[in-house]
Structures are given as structure tokens and as C-alpha cells.
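Take a record:
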Amino acid sequence: MSKVKVLEQEIRLYSHKEEDYINITDVARYKNPKRSDYIISNWLRNRNTIEFLGIWERLNNPNFNSIEFDGIKNQAGLNSFILTPKRWIEQTQAIGIISKAGRYGRTYAHKDIAFEFASWISVEFKLYLIKEFQRLKEEERKTLGWDIKRNLAKINYRIHTDAIKENLIPTKLTNQQVSLVYASEADVLNLALFGQIASDWRKKNPDKKGNMRDYANVSQLICLSNLENLNAIFIQDGLKQQDRLGKLNLIAIQQMKLLLNIDTKAIIKTKK
């Protein structure tokens, strides 16, 4: 769990299903450290807030309960209307807000919603929050880049033997293999890179789960991604499947040779 400090207030961040969520309980404490739950509920009572949340959920949540939402929206603004994060989530199946129970209960909101809430708290606080959030994301990107380079260097070091290279570099397909038509475009890529189609791999590996791509190394996955893009271009150009297969196989051989001959020292040097 990451943290940022905004105007002396510590704000926790939470990653959920590859999306960034911000602790709006922490944001509310900037306004009133002792009544953060009340502040969030008061924000949820606002009709404009309900409309914003509804639009966000419809854009991002296929399971959003629009019928329940309409009922909540009709009540918004009334003096008797009370809405808590937990009730909002349970009634509408919302995903933009996450309510965590416990002694120190806290509420997280997707960054889009959290920034909206921060604006309601204080425009100044919102701007500083966005700035700190962007700074953190930039640091994470730099760290990720470092890790990728480091891991590639390790992998490259391990595979620099001729014996392993011979097993990783695709073999050139025979004319008979190229002439066959494969209904699945995925199998065209599998054959070009791995030398076999998915069903053949499963027959040879009955004890393994998934498919051959799940057991591919980083170099093969990079090559596969490139082949997918090239195959899409070849399809748009109207090339027949067997012609595409032949081209992709030759490209796979060339790219794997290049990937497996990257100078480890050069990779390490780029990190400095």
C-alpha cells in the first residue's frame, strides 16, 4: 500500500484490480480529523454527487444496478435522505467506492471519484493531491522500468549458451506446414513462434495447465507481441493465411536471434 503526504495530511493509496483507489477517509480528515465518516456521508447526500457517481458507474461497471440508483437519486437532497458508502455499494453494486470494515473503518474511492471528493473538500487540497499522486506514479514507472531492465539482464545471462538458443530460436517451417490453413489466428502465431499449434502442445503436455504461452519466457513474449501486431497489418493488407504464416515464421526466427544476443553489459549500463 502506497502513501502520499498532502498539506501535512497522510493519504493512503490502494491498488484494486489494476486500478488506483485513494483513501477518502484520509482526505476527509484534512477537513475534520474526528468526523471523517460524517463528512463522507454528507458528501454522498448531495444530488450532484449522486449524479456524478451514477455516470461513473455506468461508464465503468457493467453490473451497476441502475434501478436501485434511480431510487437513490430521487431521494437525494431530501432532509431525511442519508447515504453511507456501505449502503451505496450494497444497493447499486458499485465498484467506484470500496468500504473496508474494522476498528478503524475506512473508505477508498477510485482516483476519478477521489479527486471529485477532494475538490468538494478543498480546491487547493485537490490540486496538491493530484500533484503528489502524479509524482508517485512517475516514481513507480521509473522503478518498473528499472525492474524490467534488471530482469531482462538476468534472463539474458541465463540463456546465453548455444544449447539453450537452439531450443528457443524457432525452426523454419516446411513447405507442407506453411501450405496448411489454420482456422485460428492464434495458432498461426503459435506455429510461427513455437513450431506447433495449441492442440498439439496440449497432447504432448497433458499434465500442464494453461497453454504454451503460459510457459514462454520474456524474449518469446516480446516476440509474440510483435508478431501479433505484424499479423494484424498483414491481414489488413489482404495476405493469405499461408503467406502470413511463412513471413511470421521468418520474422520470429530473426527477432529471437536478436533478443537472445542482447549484450548483458549493455542492458546493465542503461540502468546507470
Confidence is low (pLDDT under 50) at residues 159-165, 263-272. Residues 38 and 68 are 23 Å apart (CA to CA). The chain has two domains: 2-140, 159-270.
